[in-house]
Amino acid sequence: MNPIIELQKSHRSIRKFKDQKIPRELFEELIRAGQCAATSNHVQAYSIIHVVNPENREKLAELAGGQAHVARASDFLVFCADMKRSTEAAERAGAEVIRGMTEQLLVASIDAALMAQNVAIAAESEGLGLCYVGGIRNNPAEVAEVLRLPDHVYPVFGMSLGYPDQDPEVKPRLSLETILKEDYYDDSRDEEQVAAFDATMHRYYNERTGGNKDTNWSEQLAPLFTTKLRPHMREFLTKRGFEMK
Fold it and tell me: Which residues does the UniProt record annotate as the domain Nitroreductase (predicted)?
């Protein structure tokens, strides 16, 4: 197997980091690699906030749900969907810009995610570890205030980056047969395949925690769809100019 595919298949979330800084030259190369990701119509509808101030790192760690690695990692990035720069550029070029379209929200969010994944792969290729931080959206208005984000920009997620101080196992994924459909969406075997994956995840959690975690994939989904819905996001996005028209 080629080494790039092997690297991608070895991804783990790292939440404990060594007290070692990423050299600035390497850090900037990771960001440049991120910029080479695909982007819709070359809009490049993202901005990355590199949070250096220790007090702000502590604030963001708390706002993201008390995730200590946000403050302790070598570097912390917040990937933002940014429609401000491109719409203003189009206006300066003479366009009568229409803002607030749902497609603009999708384009900017997808651009930010693609860019971040390129950064992630580049970082792991250099022996670094990382953890995506969706908890940034727990309190997006407060996060936006800390980062001084203008309208038409919103924080999609964060990323802790650094040298790993742990070596967790790769978490299992759903089988290829479950997520890869041929020609049309066929869910005739989904229940069977999910049951098999539940058994795999039960073994994984049981072995990883020495028997202290008795659960599976389906059971782990419950909080996501009952207590982590983030109902504030629609109002927050609308106030920031993403009206979803």
Answer: 10-163
Alpha-carbon distance of 134 to 64, in angstroms, equals 8
E strand or H helix that includes residue 175: none
Give the Cα separation of 231 and 76 in Å (integer): 26
Give the H or E element holding residue 236: helix 233-239
Determine the Cα–Cα distance for residues 226 and 245; give it in Å rounded to an integer: 27
Report the pLDDT averaged over residues 235-241.
97
Choose among 4, 18, 36, 50: nearest CA to 159: 50
Return phi, psi of residue 131, to 5°: -145, 125
Q: Does 1 score more than 90 pLDDT?
A: no
**Cα(175)–Cα(161) distance, rounded to whole angstroms?**
29
The residue with tokens 């570097």 is: 75
Contact 84, 150 (CB under 8 A): yes
- The rounded distance, in Å, linking the Cα atoms of 240 and 21 is 34
Query: Residue 172, Cα to own-chain centre: how many angstroms?
Result: 19
- 46-51 sheet: strands from edge to edge: 46-51, 75-82, 153-162, 129-133
| pLDDT-based confidence at residue 211 (cuts at 50, 70, 90) | confident
The 8-class DSSP code of residue 196 comes to H
**Spatial contact of 43 and 202, defined as CB atoms under 8 Å apart:** no
Q: Mean of the pLDDT values across residues 87-113?
A: 98
CA distances in angstroms from 18 to 22, 166, 167, 169, listed in the order given: 10, 9, 12, 18
DSSP 137: G
Count Cα atoms within 13 angstroms, Cβ side, for 210: 0
